[in-house]
Amino acid sequence: MGATVGMLALMFLVGTASAAFAAAPAKPNILLLIADDYGAGNSSLYNTTNNGQLLPPTPNIASIASNGVVFRYTYANPLCSPTRACLLTGRYGFRTGIGDVVGGPQGPLSSSEFTLPRAFSTNVSLGYQLAQFGKWHLAGQANSPLNLGGWTNYVGNLTGQLTNYFNWQKTSNNVTTANTNYATTDLVNDATNWIAARGTNPWFLWAAFNAPHTPHHLPPTNLCPHYANLSGTTGDINANPVNYFNAMTEAMDTEIGRLLTALPDRANTHIIFLGDNGSLRQLLQAPYPTTNGKDTLYEGGLRVPLIISGPAVVSPNRTNDTLARMVDLYATILEMAGSSVAARAPAGVTIDSQSLMPALQTTNTYARPAYAELFGSGVIPQTATGRALRNPEFKLIRFNSGTSEFYDLASDPYEGTNLFGTTLSARAQSNYDSLVLKFGYYQTNFAVPTVTGLAGTGNTFGLTVQQDASINYSLWRAPVLDDLAWVPVTNAVIVTNGDATVTLTDPGATNGNFFYRAMGATP
Fold it and tell me: Where are the alpha helices (DSSP H) in 268-365?
């Protein structure tokens, strides 16, 4: 019995020791894949209305979806530089100043931005190694990915468009040389080599493809077998650009497959695939109108694919209807790495990003508006520039020319009928009022009105705010704190006082208890 007891005790101790020194789970790797000029309307995972007749096969992108979550309503800006700035900073263009294509009148990203690489590098305890490969397009200098973006390792092309996918300028950590490798393949070569050299260290890799952005061409046919019979002549490319766009898309998907195969532990890798803006107008597939593509604030210019797989995903191979924005990837990636915006953002820096992790870890849909903007620098007509804001059902576009358009996306997803040409239903009116009010959050031109006094007498209620002479003020009220309950007080009495304040009074405040707010807007 003594020997038996002793052996049992020894077995217990050995078991205890093994448990005490068990290896901690490895931190997940993070792979961000960006396709250029690739809108939702040109993806067979999103556009199912034409049965894939004009859409290329993308089995490797589909494999990310089968292991992850497809966000059905994801919004970018209608041009690449503004979207990339949102991704890199977690901030909208009205904060970063990037709302048009960098180059020419649009200046570069500011070096003061607290970029995603800086959020990693200022917290070395996270242990992540970082690299970006491919398109940069936030400044033109060879050292700008490091000095402005914070990337300690950058290899790719600095400009918005390659002149030739087979002969282009490649920058490797501040040194630019000519390169004759096919650009899509070259990116994956660099990325796979870098991953292989990481060993067991966790990493975050930003892979920004130029494909399928122009110039259209015939890729190496082993990468696009479904389009191998194309002639590749200039005449055929000009006559049939969709065929070559599709061939470039299939080639990109093939190389994405090679990159996914090279992952040392795909099950422990968060993979994010997205498009940076909508496709060119002449490439849009039905039911998207060909007038409403890239460079516009319509759905064809803003709505892009976003697919996320990885160890955080619960119940993979599903869709989610949360309105996702490009700024949200900033917080999402930090949370994937075990950090957060709250832990990393410097004091006084406003980060607009909201993590999408809750939508990955549950099957819930989360309420948030989607916002986009388009600056004008002379290339985009003033009549096309402006801002767009949508909630789950409705979308309001405010153009800088002073006109507006309003759409019921629930019943009119491709924006065929501007509701401002009709009598608004009660449902449409409440959504319009809600969007008008929310627009006030997306500006930095003036401060939020500061309330300096409140007064209620009989059937009136008024509030006083500090005056800004450049602002028009309005009074809003709601019976309950609900987004769709707020309405403007159309008969409000607004008086400018002699002490640099403005008083806004509701003369009909007798029908119950109300919540009030003052709103300021530029004339």
Answer: 299-302, 328-336, 341-344, 357-361
Q: How far is CA 152 from CA 139, 149, 186, 203, 384, in A?
A: 16, 9, 20, 13, 37
Smallest Cα–Cα separation from 418: which of 426, 408, 427? 408
pLDDT, the chain, mean: 91
Peptide bond before 311: cis, by omega within 30 degrees of 0?
Answer: no
The model's pLDDT over 407-423, given as tens digits with 9 standing for 90+, comes to 999 999 999 999 998 99
Is 105 a member of any domain?
yes
Nearest Cα to Cα of residue 19 among 30, 27, 11: 11
Tokens of 5: 């007891």
Task: Give the C-alpha separation, 401 to 403, whole Å.
Answer: 6
What string of DSSP letters covers 463-505?
A: EEEE--TT-EEEEEEESSS-GGG-EE-TT-EEEE-TTSEEEEE
| Structure-derived torsion over alpha carbons of residues 455, 483, 425, 472, reported in degrees to the nearest 10 | 50
Interacting residues of 347 by C-beta distance below 8 A, sequence separation 6+: none
pLDDT-based confidence at residue 24 (cuts at 50, 70, 90): low
Say which DSSP state 98 is in: -
Same domain for 190 and 288: yes
Count of domains forming the chain: 3
- What CA–CA distance (Å, rounded) separates 105 from 98? 11
SS3 445: coil
CA 479-480-483 angle, to 5 degrees, is: 110
Same domain, 40 and 170: yes
- Regarding whether 491 and 343 lie in a shared domain, the answer is no
CA–CA gap between residue 523 and residue 521 (Å, rounded)? 6
Q: Are 28 and 127 in contact (CB under 8 A)?
A: no
User: Going edge to edge, which strands form the sheet with 154-156?
Assistant: 175-179, 168-172, 154-156, 129-134, 203-208, 29-35, 269-275, 306-309, 68-71, 318-320
pLDDT of residue 52: 53
**Can you give the residue range of the structural domain that contains 317?**
29-368
Q: In the predicted model, is pLDDT for residue 16 greater than 50?
A: no
User: What is the pTM assigned to this prediction?
Assistant: 0.92
DSSP state of 40: G
The answer as to whether 377 is a domain residue is no
